[in-house]
Amino acid sequence: MPAPNLVIRGKRVVLPESIAPASIHISDGVITAIKSYESVPTGCELIQADAESLVMSGLVDTHVHINEPGRTEWEGFATATRAAAAGGVTTLVDMPLNSIPPTTTLAGFEAKLEAARGQCYVDVGFWGGVVPGNARELAPLSEAGVVGFKCFLIHSGVDEFPNVTENDLRETMPELTRLDALLIVHAEVPGPISRTGILACPGDAESAPAEEQASRNVHPTEYATFLASRPRAAEDEAIALMIKLSSEIGTRVHIVHHSSADALPSLRAAKSAGLRITAETCPHYLTFAAEEIPDGATEFKCCPPIREHENREQLWRALDSGTIDMIVSDHSPCPPEMKLRESGDFLCAWGGISSLQLRLPAVWTEASRRGHSFADLARWLCSAPAKLVGLEGRKGLIEVGYEINERKIKVKVPRFDMTKYAGVEADFSGDVEDYYMLSDVAKAFLEACRAPKTIEAQL
C-alpha cells in the first residue's frame, strides 16, 4: 500500500456503515485506507476537521441546467461550477437543454464539450437528449460518453428540444435497451393540463401581451392558478405510461423532479415488481408548500409545481421508504427579467429554480426536523446520485478506492438574486466551508448559514 501524501481526519466521519472518528489516507488522488483517528503517518499533509464538523463525501448533483453554449447569460460552466463548489457539490451532470445546440446529436455534444473546456471547477458529466427522430444519434452519443438520455413528455419550454410521444418512445426505447442506457423522463403529459382550461402563456415570456393575460378569465398572479394549471394527474398519467413502457421494453427509466404524491403507490409497486425504475425529488418540493407561496412570487415557479403541505410530507415518507431514491437540485436559472416579478404573472414567467449551491443546507434543515440522519443525507445527496450515473465505486462514498483530487482553489460564495430560498437562508443548517472535490470529502459545518465569504476548496 503506498504511503499517503494527504490525511483528512475528523471526529465525525460519515462512513458507509457508521459515523465515527477516522483518518482518511489519500495517495495520488485515491483513498487508500480509512484508519483510526490517531493514525497519521509523519511526512504527509494533514487536514484536521474541528470537533463541530462533519466530514462527508462530496455531493453529486445529477440534475443541473448549464445553458452554455447559446444561453450563457442564463448560466455558464464557470458560474455554475463555482456555485456547485460553494455548495459542496463535487460532481454535477449537465442537462441536454437549454443550451443551443441541445445535446441531441454528436455535433451538439461536441459543441457542449468545447464550451466547457477549461471552465469547470468541479467534475462535470453530460446527459444526452431524446427528441423525435434522433434515434440514430443515441449510439454515437453513448459511445462519446453521455451518462444517459433525457426526454420530455410535454413541451420542454424551448423549441429546440421538442417533447416525445408514446409512439416516439416505442421507436427509441428498444435502442436504449440495446445500449443498456438510462432514460430519464420529465414526467408530465399534456392531456390533464389541457383539460384544466388554464392557458399557458403563448410565445416568449418577456413579450406576452397583457391583453392575452386578461382574456384567460383566470388570475395569473395567484399561485393557486398556476398550481391548478399543472395538476397531479399530469404526472400520474406520465408515470403510468413510463411504467408500462419499461415493463414492455425493458428500458431503465428514471423519473426526474418528482412532485405528485398520488403517483407514489404506482412507483412503489413497479419497484416491488422488479422494474428498473428509480425516482428523484428536489429540495424545493421538500422545503416549501403551496399554501405558503405568496401571490406574484414567481421565483417559486417550476414544473411540476411545488404542491401542498400534505403532498410534501408524503414525499418525505417516500424518501424514507426508498420509493424515491435521491434528492437533486434541478438547478434551472434564467435572467431575472424572465421571472416577471414586476407583473407577478405565474403563467408567463419562466419556470425554473436556481438552487445549485443550496441543496445541502435546504435538505439538511428539513431532514433534521423530521429525525433523519447524516447517513440518510449522504445516501440521498451523494451515493444514490453517483450510482444513477455509473459512478459507483468512484464517487459518493468515503471508502477505499474512491477518488479525491488535490488541487486547491478559492471560491467566492455566490448568491442568486432570483432564488426562492432568499429570505429563508437564515433558518438553514449546514454551511459548507472546506471541501476536497471530485468525489472526495466535503467538510460541512452544521451551523446557521453565514454571510457570503471566501472559502477554500481543494479540487
Describe the 3D structure.
With 459 residues, the protein is α/β, with parallel strands linked by helices. It has 13 helices and 18 strands. The protein has helices at residues 77-86, 106-116, 138-144, 166-179, 190-195, 210-214, 223-229, 232-249, 264-272, 283-287, 309-321, 359-369, 374-388, and strands spanning 6-14, 19-27, 30-35, 45-48, 53-57, 59-64, 89-94, 123-126, 128-129, 149-152, 182-186, 252-255, 277-281, 326-327, 408-412, 429-436, 441-448, 454-458. The protein has a 6-stranded parallel sheet. The longest helix has 18 residues, at 232-249. It starts with 5 loop residues before the first strand and ends with a strand.
Q: Strand order of the main beta sheet, please? A: 9-10-11-12-13-14
Helix content: 25-40%
Low-confidence stretches: 203-210, 406-420, 422-428, 433-459
Principal-axes shape call:
globular
- Largest sheet entry: 6 strands, parallel
- Estimate what percentage of residues fall within beta strands: 15-25%
Number of helices: 13
Number of strands: 18
Mean pLDDT: 87
Which structural category fits the helices and strands?
alpha/beta
State the separation between the terminal residues, measured CA to CA: 23 Å
Rg, nearest Å: 22 Å
What keywords describe this structure?
globular, 459 residues, 5-stranded mixed sheet, disordered C terminus
Topology (elements, then pairings):
Layout: E1 6-14, E2 19-27, E3 30-35, E4 45-48, E5 53-57, E6 59-64, H1 77-86, E7 89-94, H2 106-116, E8 123-126, E9 128-129, H3 138-144, E10 149-152, H4 166-179, E11 182-186, H5 190-195, H6 210-214, H7 223-229, H8 232-249, E12 252-255, H9 264-272, E13 277-281, H10 283-287, H11 309-321, E14 326-327, H12 359-369, H13 374-388, E15 408-412, E16 429-436, E17 441-448, E18 454-458
